């Protein structure tokens, strides 16, 4: 229930900083190297998406005990899976490099973070160079993913049209069947087809129309955040300005993955107290009467000089390393809503860790999820024995009501059948424990 089914895919050419990005954003330790195919198999890790926890709004911070992730003074960190796909090269959609394998790995991702070496010090194949234009990387990577989908459709298009006519399907049904291998469904296909507004029947689509359909599909299925990495290198400034001017700033984030790795490492080793997503950190000399657990170590001169360089080149110049902002923007693309299922909407208990624990569970659900669908997501039996649901103020919710930020603290009431089953299960467990204890006691008596 804690870790959702959402996956952030990290993509890009070799040596752009993808593995460093994964290491800076997650608990993974991905292999880092300055040569193509450093990452042969995809690396996985868990990153954290920060939201405001309702425990702060209702003054319950001391009782908030998340089952997954953590809550720090009302800041809730929700775990999300991150996937680092091995470096792509131009021609991947035609099988260049290990392209087909890498592109197939993307099927499990819901949103992409494209890590770009904005310094221009690596060419399209990830080899060291000077003066390379990173705009090329943004363009060709999108083209490779587009061609991957387009070519898969095009090579069987005649058969698709023939089947479409024979079954008398509509375009959404046919496309859903053909695109299901990319982890899509009819709802998603319906959304991008509505936005596209095509009037031409599917059997009359030409190549140009098919390219438009694929482009609309990718925008919906694989929304992409561009992480302009290595912002602290000399040539980065002019390239950042050029890229932002061409693509806008809505889905572009300036990042230094290595700086974030360095700051988190110092924090873990207790040399600094780093406030992730900001430019701020505390040193030992900043502390006043810290507890033994919170007391920081004193930095040596070499590490202090490195830290000051990170401040000058990244934190003071850009405000933060950009890594946390990338995660925030990526999750925002998914249009998901955090929902807190509770046992009681008056005291927010969730039946875990004792009666005082609140808001133990939090799920990220897609926008447009209904209350009854949410019950099904939690557990099939909640849906089977569903009676009604309520939110703050004991307000009843309709089964078809959409979950929003205004009703995302939800208590689902079920019939007595499910409660009786749970009580019987507990009773059986207690009887088994009593039986085992009795056997152990008899065994001890025999030994005596």
Automatic annotation (TrEMBL):
<keyword id="KW-0547">Nucleotide-binding</keyword>
<dbReference type="GO" id="GO:0005525">
    <property type="term" value="F:GTP binding"/>
</dbReference>
<dbReference type="InterPro" id="IPR027417">
    <property type="entry name" value="P-loop_NTPase"/>
</dbReference>
<protein>
    <submittedName>
        <fullName>p-loop containing nucleoside triphosphate hydrolase protein</fullName>
    </submittedName>
</protein>
<dbReference type="Pfam" id="PF08438">
    <property type="entry name" value="YGR210-like_G4"/>
</dbReference>
<dbReference type="GO" id="GO:0016887">
    <property type="term" value="F:ATP hydrolysis activity"/>
</dbReference>
<keyword id="KW-0378">Hydrolase</keyword>
<dbReference type="InterPro" id="IPR013646">
    <property type="entry name" value="YGR210-like_G4"/>
</dbReference>
<dbReference type="InterPro" id="IPR012676">
    <property type="entry name" value="TGS-like"/>
</dbReference>
<dbReference type="InterPro" id="IPR006073">
    <property type="entry name" value="GTP-bd"/>
</dbReference>
<dbReference type="Pfam" id="PF01926">
    <property type="entry name" value="MMR_HSR1"/>
</dbReference>
<dbReference type="InterPro" id="IPR031167">
    <property type="entry name" value="G_OBG"/>
</dbReference>
<keyword id="KW-0342">GTP-binding</keyword>
<dbReference type="GO" id="GO:0005737">
    <property type="term" value="C:cytoplasm"/>
</dbReference>
<feature type="domain" description="OBG-type G">
    <location>
        <begin position="6"/>
        <end position="275"/>
    </location>
</feature>
<feature type="region of interest" description="Disordered">
    <location>
        <begin position="421"/>
        <end position="448"/>
    </location>
</feature>
<feature type="compositionally biased region" description="Basic and acidic residues">
    <location>
        <begin position="437"/>
        <end position="448"/>
    </location>
</feature>
<dbReference type="InterPro" id="IPR012675">
    <property type="entry name" value="Beta-grasp_dom_sf"/>
</dbReference>
